[in-house]
């Protein structure tokens, strides 16, 4: 399982979370990455943790003021990027272009979407992975362990029907180690979570709980 | 073959084009539709021609000022709608929602996209058809008959790999009857064109030429 | 006072509201307009009521599939247009271009904004009017008569400081005739309302109440 | 005069330009800042040059994946931010919110716009400065020294009519020291330029030429 901690624009200390993630990954052998804002990538990557961007723009070098160039986040130390997160929905054509821009810059890609049809569409764009963010689960009131399990398995089926090589992550509804195991049992090979770690009083303890059942 | 004439925001007389399209469709037996702006749907549909919207919004009834409600264009006489035209690119999530909104309103749907990867993604959203608009062909300087034929066949293959029931239209590079035949030979079951008819001195003659080889 | 009834994408009968608005305007001598979706402008205008678009696009004739051309809505019978409604926020550059497009097509313009700073900015773009939509009032739980009266007077002052010729409408918080009088006393020369009429069991009675105190 | 060098997404070495800008600013006494992408702010600011963001998002801390938080770019070392650059046009409401977000984070703000009406609108949002980017001058084929001088003086007048405390920068058409002097004579108190420095073979020499006449 791959655990990706999205720091969003939370008022957390990105270095504290990054250091905890690096240590728990080393101790547990579980792959864990942290996704800070673009302006924090360099200092987060300097901790040694696997670092992901939250977004890259659908353009290469050129006259694109205000864009988040894939090459620039890669130079700053990012190894992957989220795309089309539910808080940052993109045009279909821009997801396609951004996936290709990220690949040119050597970044792993995870395209988010919120139902099996969109997961199939995202998989058709050939990212490394897709993350299903069912609206029922976004916000965290319901865990994937208690929600209708079809939510994840349908996404796994939809992605697999289009391209079997695309991994499917569970993009919402995860806050405990039990949720991680449930997601794994449903066919997800990774999870995205945010507040469960980024807003935790003790991010290290939260991460240790998440990997405990793996 | 299905011929869909997109009037865009051209300074043409929509009723003149609609009347010509209705007559040529009746005389030739070829299915021809006209796609005017939302404000012109009612008067275009009144001619009896098959009428398509150029876009519908990804929402149902409610507080959506300035939207183009699928139910409203259907009530005005539209039978189908384009979505995600290259001049009106939409977010992936909005294409999905708009396809479903159009279906609820009884509208046929055609999602545009500009390369085989995006065509596969569009097909995954289960519209009735997709239209490939290769950037090489948009603008009309190159006809599909002289361009690399892989442009259309790759789109047909990409859509078919995802959902065999989705029709593939050729969304650019068509201005003559020969182009229509070429598109048909490459596997397209319909064509989108705009200026070749809408800006023609004689729209009826242009349409008659388009259907001549069918 | 000018009363503009925004039908949004509500499931109302636009002809019923339009007919009521036409009759109440004639009987009361108060200026009343109805703003339906683009696809309904032609049939609404046919009733004889003053008809406004909910939006026009920042472009002229040309290759703009899915746009709402100012000339097209004017041809369909619109005499004015809203722009930048809170449900349809536009880029600053596009508001500027759309105001100019609307003026070229002979449409009166009302640019919405939600605080005095934005009202000043909107007034700088030289529309005929601006409408202040304070977030506190949107949705209708609070009426302008009970809210902090500074909300409207600050907007009137902000617009006047930039361009005294721009009218200021009250764009939220109105549902009764008392509210209309309050808005007028605060310096507004018009009001925008939606559900209070469009969703009323008896739109004619709702309109008669609105004009009763004028 | 204030000289702001926008690095856009150019394939330049941001540290080389930053170091040159820092040195020329120190030697000449002219205020010079460099505006890199968000992911490069920290390393650019580490050179000691005044550093500006190219954009900040209209939000504070919270669930805003992919946003460019004003506080985050300030923490990384930025002292100011561009907003609404012609390559990154924003909604009016978002410019307003982003100006306020930047001010909360202690960032100086410069809102770009492309004609006197929009400059007046931008000034109404109370940024520290506005930059006029006349379409005639964007791209650099025409210098402000040879273009119609009304382009800049009209912008200065438009901003002054709304808020005299807002500085006006010349946002296009500058590549030489003579252009800088011309812009100053027309009432601009700063200039934005990009390729003239960022793509120069010798950025230091380009900057020395720009300040030579001051």
Automatic annotation (TrEMBL), chains A, B, C, D:
GO terms for cellular component: cytoplasm. It is found in: Cytoplasm. The active site is at residues 85, 133. CDD domains: TIM. It holds the Pfam family TIM. InterPro entries: Aldolase_TIM (IPR013785), TIM_sf (IPR035990), Triosephosphate_isomerase (IPR000652), Triosephosphate_isomerase_arc (IPR022891). GO terms for biological process: gluconeogenesis; glycolytic process. Substrate binds at residues 6-8, 138, 173, 194-195. GO terms for molecular function: triose-phosphate isomerase activity. Its main location: cytoplasm. Keywords: Cytoplasm, Gluconeogenesis, Glycolysis, Isomerase. Its EC number is 5.3.1.1. It is an enzyme of class 5 (isomerase). Pathway: Carbohydrate biosynthesis; gluconeogenesis; Carbohydrate degradation; glycolysis; D-glyceraldehyde 3-phosphate from glycerone phosphate: step 1/1. It catalyses: D-glyceraldehyde 3-phosphate = dihydroxyacetone phosphate. Involved in the gluconeogenesis. Catalyzes stereospecifically the conversion of dihydroxyacetone phosphate (DHAP) to D-glyceraldehyde-3-phosphate (G3P). Belongs to the triosephosphate isomerase family. Homotetramer; dimer of dimers. This is Triosephosphate isomerase. The gene is tpiA.
């Amino acid at each position: 399982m791959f655990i990706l901690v999205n720091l969003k624009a939370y008022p957390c200390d990105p270095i504290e979370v990054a250091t905890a993630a690096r240590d728990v990954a080393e101790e547990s052998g579980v792959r864990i990455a942290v996704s800070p804002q673009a302006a924090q990538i360099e200092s987060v990557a300097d901790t040694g943790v696997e670092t992901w961007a939250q977004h890259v723009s659908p353009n290469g070098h050129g006259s694109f003021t205000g864009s988040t160039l894939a090459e620039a986040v890669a130079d700053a130390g990012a190894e992957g990027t989220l795309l089309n997160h539910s808080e940052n929905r993109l045009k279909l054509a821009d997801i396609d272009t951004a996936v290709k821009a990220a690949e040119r810059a050597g970044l792993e890609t995870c395209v988010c979407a919120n139902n099996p049809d969109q997961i199939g569409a995202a998989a058709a764009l050939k990212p490394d992975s897709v993350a299903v963010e069912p609206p029922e689960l976004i916000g965290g009131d319901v865990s994937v362990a208690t929600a209708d399990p079809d939510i994840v398995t349908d996404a796994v089926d939809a992605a697999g029907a289009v391209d079997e090589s695309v991994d499917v992550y569970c993009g919402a509804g995860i806050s405990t180690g039990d949720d991680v195991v449930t997601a794994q049992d449903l066919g997800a090979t990774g999870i995205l979570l945010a507040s469960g770690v980024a807003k935790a009083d003790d991010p290290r303890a939260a991460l240790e709980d998440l990997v405990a059942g793996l």
